[in-house]
Design goal:
Length: 168
């Protein structure tokens, strides 16, 4: 029994090292929620890679962020995708992870839908050409829209937050 405490500390030490190497930037709007017991589905300290990149038309994208241990992979890949979409649901005074939101990325100039998919977690990173886009996100029948400008020189990010109780 006396050896069980050090074994419990090893996963915590590994997680601390991973987070120190890939810091999560704090945001005023609380966009990146802390891990909760429901967000964990792998062994403590287990690294989870980025999901497989998918393609729809001319757009490559990846979606996920659940389990929480997958977040370092998403943060590391952020700059490889010109458009980063984050979808959350308000939970009290913080933003909580979501999944299965319908997302449509529409070219604002032509009205063409360049990507239509369902999220597999709070993150959807997409390789879209530079331009102006409207992002329509639907979660449990509620729709939110945002506009985003994608350039070739930096990653564009849009954060969609649905009201508390959207998925209840």
């Amino acid at each position: 029994m006396k050896n069980s405490i050090p074994h419990l500390l090893i996963p915590a030490a590994i997680a601390a090292l991973v987070l120190a190497a890939n810091p999560v930037r704090a945001q005023d709007n609380g966009a990146s929620p802390p891990p909760g017991s429901s967000a964990r589905s792998v062994l403590p300290g287990e690294a989870v890679p980025l999901p497989e990149v998918q393609t729809s038309g001319d757009v490559s994208y990846v979606s996920g962020g659940i389990p929480y241990e997958q977040l370092p992979a998403f943060h590391a890949a952020r700059s490889q995708f010109p458009l980063n979409i984050e979808v959350y649901e308000r939970d009290g005074n913080r933003n909580a992870f979501t999944a299965e939101a319908d997302v449509r990325v529409i070219n604002a100039k032509t009205g063409d839908v360049v990507l239509e998919t369902k999220t597999e977690g709070p993150y959807l990173w997409a390789k879209v050409p530079p331009g102006q886009y409207k992002v329509e996100t639907t979660l449990n029948g509620k729709v939110k829209e945002s506009r985003v400008s994608v350039s070739s020189s930096r990653t564009a990010r849009t954060i969609i937050v649905f009201p508390d109780g959207t998925t209840d």
